[in-house]
Please model this.
Amino acid sequence: MNGDTLHSIGDLARRTGLTVKTVRFYSDAGIVPPADRTPAGYRLYGTDAVARLDLVRTLRDLGLDLPTIRKVVDREVSLPEVAAAHADALEVQIRVLRLRRAVLTAVAKRGSTPKELELMHKLAKLSEDERQRLIDDFLGTVFDGLHDHPAFAAVTRSLTPELPDDPEAEQVEAWVELAELFQDPGFRSTMRGMARGMAADRAPDDATGLPRTLADVTRAEVTAAIAAGIDPASSEAEPVVAALTAHYAHILGLPDDADLRRRLVTHLETMDDPRRDRYLALLAVINEWPAPGSLAPVFDWAVRALHARMPA
Model:
């Protein structure tokens, strides 16, 4: 061996910290072949065997399989190539493990039943394409026939969840609840009605002095009234009611009369659906947006103020 020092299998085990059984296993696998044998047939290894075994142990600790390790030590493939491929595979595994952890954490927090666990796991592990199809189906139903509306693109973006690759437990929990809402026929119908109402409640371009949508003007007018502690049935509420009805009359091109006010009350009651607020709150968790304020107090105040001024 050109003067190289040869090591017995026991000596090699001591130098590497591995057991004799492990060294023999790698030798039998052809990963660390013997350089020679004694007259009695015992294996002898060259000095490079120590370095090979150190590399093998490191690669095994990193999770590489033996066939791949053999290709690396035999230089059939480069170490950087193998490292890159293995890193990509680990990234997928990490995302899966994080998702599983998030599901289990959410289940523990919610005290879920086995059936709820099954549903949560199913919804949480949907691929990105599967999630997108579920979202597109929901938004397609909600905004059917409204694609040419000037606000369509912005509104759909504002209602689209984007679950990150490594979500936190609360994001998984929010996604599952949102996905359940997506598949609720009653909620889909309610949101579709709200979308059509939004399209109809947008003031024409020549509107002046008021926000463009009924929801915007209701928020702007009523929030200040609530902050001021104005009773919706009091005379102080009259200017607020007048502003709301005038805006709605302008949108519809109808006179501001009792019929219009009844129509406005019905519309505001439809908009005042707690599931809408819940949807937006869940969306904020998933997309890491600031928590939205609830419009329920605003709509409730407006409805009470209108009812107080309608004939029995």
